[in-house]
Design a protein that fits this description.
This protein has helices spanning about 1-25, 30-60, 60-70, 75-100, 140-150, 210-230, 250-280, 285-300, 300-305, 310-335, 340-350, 365-375, 385-400, 415-430, 445-455, 470-480; strands at about 110-120, 160-180, 190-205, 235-245, 350-355, 405-410, 435-440, 455-465, 485-494. With about 500 residues, the chain is an alpha/beta fold. The chain folds into 3 domains: about 1-105 and about 255-335, no CATH class; about 110-250, 2-Layer Sandwich (Alpha-Beta Plaits); about 340-494, Rossmann fold (3-Layer(aba) Sandwich), CATH 3.40.50. A 5-stranded parallel β-sheet has the order 5-9-8-6-7, sandwiched between helices. A 4-stranded antiparallel β-sheet has the order 2-3-1-4, covered by helices on one side. α4 runs parallel beside α8.
């Protein structure tokens, strides 16, 4: 019967220890979180590093030369020629993708159209062909690039954003009766051809204001070209006749152009796959290994294939958190420290006078974690604050009073600022009633030891997560060798 009772008590202690360990994990959430982040970063970068090394070795010059050494000169040439053909598709795909990414005409930004028309007249045919995008010089193009805000590789698409086109017809004869034309059958006067047509400037712009800025640059170029032609003795006129601005003019066109480019890219990739199936898939293993290495090196597969894996980092982070939790649980179970009222009660086999929480101000997450941990280890109802400390001191006084105590020693394994606050409050309360009070660790120095052995009542102050079971057991054993009586414990939740 007695053995069964002991067994039940032991099993209960183990259960409480496990709950205490679980609450310790919650209270140490910062440690778990920090371990998770550190292991995630370190593990993620290590996996990236080793994968990168593996891929670098696969596509290194040394690997390629080693493979070539196993093939004949003719076989190496064959594989290199096959890759050259394969690479043609890569370059075409890159060009298409660059257009999709960089060409302003394929973006949703420049959808509006500003169109300006000029009436063109000249006494010479073909003059209209002198007016085109080529009428602009380098400075003009630089100004337009700046207005559009094109930078880097996008500058080359500037010429696609506007057009200068024209057409002409012979409209009528021009008769000059005053002209002195002695070579003419008329003797005096002349009859010449007159040509006219329309010159049109179209611009794809983001706003009307942007279009007007670009038109100012183009007009300057047209005037220069007009003066240049006149200086050659050609009669020519250019007069603006109409202009109009249409918003979202190119919306449908942009969608069509992008679909065409995407379709072209897909077709090119399909052709590349067919090329591989027809020419590469049937190669013998060593030749195919050479092809793959050439492909990987030329296409910079090291960058494409080796990226920092977020999933690897998450796995390592989760592993780090799990290992840390296991360590905290094992340390809590094996540390031999007390964590709850029941831990102290089971170790002392005696009365717990009072419990008190003395915690500094915490951030919200820590406060929530402490509440959750309190719920796990059963300490949710334990009071906190100055009023609670007054109650603790009063309970200690009432307990020692029932034992007619005159000289009390409060045992504390550690006396830090937290313990000092509790001990001082209890000491002040007892001294008001004429009770002598000393406190400290009787094993720390001779003075404390003498006071411990000469007292008539002993109270234990146990701090959760700090005070050890061994210390409590030693105090209980030594209290039996003194004149003092062990009257109970105060548990300080830190």
């Amino acid at each position: 019967m007695q053995n069964d009772m002991n067994k039940d008590r032991y099993e209960n202690e183990v259960e409480i220890d496990i709950l205490s360990a679980m609450s310790s994990v919650v209270r140490k959430w910062k440690v778990v979180f920090a371990a998770m982040i550190v292991v995630a970063v370190v593990g993620g970068f290590l996996s990236y590093y080793f994968e990168k090394k593996k891929v670098e070795n696969q596509y290194s010059d040394e690997t390629i030369e080693l493979i070539k050494s196993e093939l004949t000169v003719a076989e190496v040439a064959k594989v290199e020629n096959l890759y050259a053909g394969y690479d043609v598709y890569n370059k075409k795909v890159e060009d298409i993708q660059e257009e999709l990414d960089e060409n302003p005409r394929l973006q949703d930004k420049y959808l509006d159209l500003l169109s300006v028309q000029y009436l063109y007249k000249s006494d010479c045919s073909g003059m209209v062909t002198l007016f085109s995008n080529y009428s602009l010089n380098g400075d003009d193009h630089d100004k337009i690039v700046a207005i559009y805000g094109l930078t880097g590789d996008r500058e080359k698409y500037e010429n696609q954003m506007f057009s200068i086109t024209g057409d002409e017809v012979q409209s009528e004869y021009k008769i000059d009766t005053d002209a002195d034309n002695q070579g003419s059958l008329l003797g005096i006067g002349s009859i010449t051809n007159e040509y006219q047509g329309t010159l049109t400037v179209n611009m794809y712009v983001e706003s009307k204001e942007q279009g007007e800025q670009i038109l100012e640059v183009i007009n300057g170029a047209l005037i220069r070209r007009l003066e240049e032609i006149k200086s050659k003795g050609v009669e020519i006129e250019l007069n603006k006749t109409a202009d109009y601005y249409k918003q979202n003019f190119r919306k449908d066109e942009v969608e069509v152009l992008r679909r065409e480019k995407v379709s072209e890219k897909a077709d090119t990739l399909n052709l590349q796959v067919e090329y591989y199936d027809d020419n590469v898939s049937g190669l013998e293993k060593t030749q195919k290994d050479l092809f793959v290495s050439l492909k990987g090196k030329a296409e910079n597969e090291i960058v494409k294939e080796v990226e920092f894996s977020a999933s690897n980092a998450v796995i390592f982070g989760a592993l780090g958190a799990v290992v840390t939790i296991i360590i905290i649980i094992l340390v809590s179970i094996c540390s031999g420290k007390v964590y709850t009222n029941n831990n102290v009660k089971n170790r002392t086999r005696d009365y717990v006078i009072a419990s008190f929480k003395n915690r500094k101000k915490r951030i919200l997450i820590s406060a929530i974690a402490d509440k959750l941990a309190d719920a796990i280890d059963g300490s949710s109802d334990i009071a906190e604050g100055k009023d609670a400390l007054e109650v603790v001191a009063e309970k200690v006084y009432m307990t020692v009073k029932r034992n007619d105590a005159k000289n009390v020693f409060i045992v504390a394994q550690f006396v830090t600022k937290k313990e000092e606050e509790v001990l001082s409050k209890i000491k002040d309360r007892l001294k008001k009633q004429g009770i002598e009070v000393n406190y400290g660790n009787p094993y720390a120095n001779v003075d404390n030891s003498r006071k411990f052995y000469s007292c008539d009542s002993i109270v234990l102050l146990a701090t959760t997560g700090k005070t050890t079971s061994k210390f409590i057991n030693d105090i209980k054993l030594d209290s039996n060798r003194t004149d003092g009586k062990f009257v109970g414990s105060v548990v300080l939740y830190s």
